[in-house]
C-alpha cells in the first residue's frame, strides 16, 4: 500500500468562482453598504470624495481607474440608498476588473480571505513559468489541508488520520490567482470554514515564533508547544513547499467584514513572513514531529478486503477497510495462522472483524501492530448483504479467491 506524498495534491482546487456557491449579482436589498465599502477598500479601490455622511465615490485600482467610478451610500438612511447600491452592483458585474469580481463574490459568499505571496523573479511582461504558479497552488492546498486537519485534532503528525473528512471540508473554498503566478487568494466561506481560518491563523503565528526561537537559541521546545496551536508535520511541509525556490513568502488573513472578527483574534493582522533562512528549522521540526508522534492504541472494526501469505500455512498479511475505531480508511496487519484463518472465514461469509492493536505512526498510521483478539462481528442480514456487495465490487476480491483456490 503506497502513501501519497504530501506535495502531491489529492485533487485540484475548485475554480474561482465556484458554481455551487455563486448565484450571480447579489440583491441590493440584502447588501450592507458598510460591507460593500469595506470590500471595495480591501480589493484596492480608492475613495475619491463624495457627499460626506451620505455616499462615497470609489474608483478601481490600476492606472485607468479614473475612467470608472461607483457611488456607494454609507448607510440606508437615505431614500436613494437601494438605487445607488443597485447601480454599483450592476457596474461591478459589467466590469472586467478581477477586483470587481472579487467584491461581488465577497458579497454573495461571506468569506475569510487567505492570501499567499511568493517572491520569485519575474519574466517578460511580468510573466512566470507555469511551474511557479503550480508550486504556489500546491503549497497553498497543503497548508489549507494542514489547517483542516488541525481543526479535527492536535497532533505533531496526522498521517492518514482524518485526512478524508479534512480534504472534503475544503470543497467549498474558492481559489483565485493573480497574473505572474506569485499571488494566490483563497476565499473560505464563514458558514463552513471559519474554524479553519482561525486555526490556520493561530498555527502560522505559532510556527513563526517557533522558528524565531529555534534560530535564536538553537532549541526546539517552541515547536513542541506549538502543536496545540495547530502546527504539525503537515504544516511545516507546506511552509517548506511554499518557501523553497523563492526569495521569501508571506501569508495574510483578512476576516469577512460581514461577520466581524472571531473571538481571540486581532482585527488587523500583519502578513506572516518566511524566508529561505527558515527552511532548516522547518525541515528539522517536520522530521521531529514525524519521529516523535506515538503509536495509538485502538480497537478497530473493519471489513477484510485483502488477505495474502507466501504459503498455504503460517502467518499472513490482512488489509481492513475501517468501519469504526480509527480515523483512517484502511489498515494493514500481520496475523498468526489462527487469526488469519478467522479473518479469511469472516471475509467469506461477509462479516467484519474486530481487532485490538496499536496504530503505528510510521507510514502514516496505516499499519496495526501488536494485534490481538481477532473475532468476527455479528451484523444483521441487510448489513451483511450490503457489505458483501461492496466487497465484491472491488478488484481486490480477486486476489483473495486466487489464494483460497490455490491453498489448503
UniProtKB/TrEMBL annotation:
<protein>
    <submittedName>
        <fullName>Uncharacterized protein</fullName>
    </submittedName>
</protein>
<feature type="compositionally biased region" description="Basic and acidic residues">
    <location>
        <begin position="1"/>
        <end position="11"/>
    </location>
</feature>
<feature type="region of interest" description="Disordered">
    <location>
        <begin position="1"/>
        <end position="28"/>
    </location>
</feature>
Amino acid at each position: 500500500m503506497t502513501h501519497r506524498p504530501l506535495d502531491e495534491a489529492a485533487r485540484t482546487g475548485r475554480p474561482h468562482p465556484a458554481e455551487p456557491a455563486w448565484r450571480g449579482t447579489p440583491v441590493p436589498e440584502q447588501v450592507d453598504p458598510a460591507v460593500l465599502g469595506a470590500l471595495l477598500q480591501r480589493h484596492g479601490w480608492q475613495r475619491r470624495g463624495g457627499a460626506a455622511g451620505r455616499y462615497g465615490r470609489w474608483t478601481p485600482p490600476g492606472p485607468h481607474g479614473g475612467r470608472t467610478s461607483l457611488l456607494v451610500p454609507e448607510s440606508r438612511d437615505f431614500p436613494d440608498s437601494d438605487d445607488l447600491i443597485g447601480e454599483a452592483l450592476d457596474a461591478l458585474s459589467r466590469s472586467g476588473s478581477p477586483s470587481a469580481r472579487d467584491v461581488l463574490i465577497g458579497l454573495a459568499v461571506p468569506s475569510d480571505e487567505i492570501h499567499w505571496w511568493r517572491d520569485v523573479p519575474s519574466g517578460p511582461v511580468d510573466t512566470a513559468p507555469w511551474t511557479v504558479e503550480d508550486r504556489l497552488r500546491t503549497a497553498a492546498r497543503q497548508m489549507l489541508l494542514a489547517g483542516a486537519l488541525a481543526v479535527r485534532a492536535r497532533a505533531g503528525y496526522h498521517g492518514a488520520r482524518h485526512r478524508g473528512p479534512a480534504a472534503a471540508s475544503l470543497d467549498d473554498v474558492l481559489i483565485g490567482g493573480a497574473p505572474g503566478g506569485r499571488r494566490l487568494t483563497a476565499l473560505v466561506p464563514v458558514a463552513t470554514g471559519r474554524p479553519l481560518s482561525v486555526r490556520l491563523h493561530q498555527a502560522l503565528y505559532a510556527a513563526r515564533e517557533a522558528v524565531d526561537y529555534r534560530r535564536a537559541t538553537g532549541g526546539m521546545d517552541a515547536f513542541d508547544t506549538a502543536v496545540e496551536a495547530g502546527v504539525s508535520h503537515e504544516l511545516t511541509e507546506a511552509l517548506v513547499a511554499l518557501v523553497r525556490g523563492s526569495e521569501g513568502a508571506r501569508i495574510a488573513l483578512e476576516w469577512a467584514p460581514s461577520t466581524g472578527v472571531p473571538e481571540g483574534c486581532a482585527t488587523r493582522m500583519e502578513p506572516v513572513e518566511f524566508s529561505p533562512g527558515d527552511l532548516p528549522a522547518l525541515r528539522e521540526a517536520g522530521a521531529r514531529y514525524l519521529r516523535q508522534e506515538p503509536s495509538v492504541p485502538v480497537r478497530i472494526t473493519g471489513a477484510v478486503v485483502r488477505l495474502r501469505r507466501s504459503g498455504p500455512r503460517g502467518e499472513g498479511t490482512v488489509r481492513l477497510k475501517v468501519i469504526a475505531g480509527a480515523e483512517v480508511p484502511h489498515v494493514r496487519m500481520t496475523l498468526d495462522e489462527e487469526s488469519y484463518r478467522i479473518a479469511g472465514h469472516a471475509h467469506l461469509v461477509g462479516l467484519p472483524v474486530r481487532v485490538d492493536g496499536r496504530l503505528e505512526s510510521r507510514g502514516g498510521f496505516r499499519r496495526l501492530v501488536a494485534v490481538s483478539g481477532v473475532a468476527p462481528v455479528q451484523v444483521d442480514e441487510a448489513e451483511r448483504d450490503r457489505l458483501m456487495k461492496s466487497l465484491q465490487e472491488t478488484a481486490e476480491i480477486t486476489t483473495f479467491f486466487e489464494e483460497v483456490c490455490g491453498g489448503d
